[in-house]
Amino acid sequence: MASLSVPPAPADPRRDAIDLYRAFRGFGCDSTTVISILAHRAAPQRALIQHEYAAIFRQHLYHRLASELSGNNKKAMLLWILDPASRDAEILHQALYGDVITDMRAVTEVVCSRTPSQLQIMKQAYHARFGCHLENHVAERTSGDHQRLLLAYLRWPRYEGPEVVDPAAAARDARELYRAGERRLGTDERAFIRVFSERSWAHMASVAHAYQHIYDRSLEKVIKIMDKMYHGFMDITSFLMPSHLSFFLFF
């Protein structure tokens, strides 16, 4: 399959819509042409192509792709032409209901790697697309501490703007995580859930720094021993590394 990339020069959405329509005509679909067009268009361009296609041919491009493509090409293109929030909503629904067993890794990766504002838009897209609140489906298809982490992350309105982090507060959270994890036999997952779901990413970056400074051990290594909650907390801590938080210059 062609790689997904942005075109070097502005494309003509009307021309693209017509070329896609021609690729659908005849015996079988010219999937190579379809992919070569859509895979090299940025999100705003794909939105314009869909608008032009509907205006010219009186049908939704999404539905036409669903009927013409198959296999992995179909799955990739149907996700690719969606806006980011709708794409997340579709991935979550497939992960929750696509198979007999819920794909907890996919659900956790999407939910725990999005900002609060992205989560709000995603939840709206999910409700519009599937007629149910995302929290209700998560509660129905998950259980235990993993469920508590996901629901807390979906519900708690964490701050995401610029802030001056209180080092003392970050150190207190670091000590609480130590008492809930390394210091005791067995992990108090609820303490980890509370801190990770209620604190901003900037604050959590400071917590990770404080943990390293106080205990000479990275918070990431501590989380790796937490089998039940590993993926959830690791998806969050991946955004606490310097490459993701270079704009938070607190320490």
Automatic annotation (TrEMBL):
GO biological process: response to cold; response to heat; response to salt stress; response to water deprivation
InterPro entries: Annexin_repeat
Keyword Calcium attached: yes
Keyword Iron-sulfur tagged: no
One GO molecular-function entry: phosphatidylserine binding
GO CC annotation, single: plasma membrane
Keywords: Annexin, Calcium, Calcium/phospholipid-binding, Repeat
Name of the protein described by the UniProt record: Annexin
Organism the protein comes from: Zizania palustris (Northern wild rice)
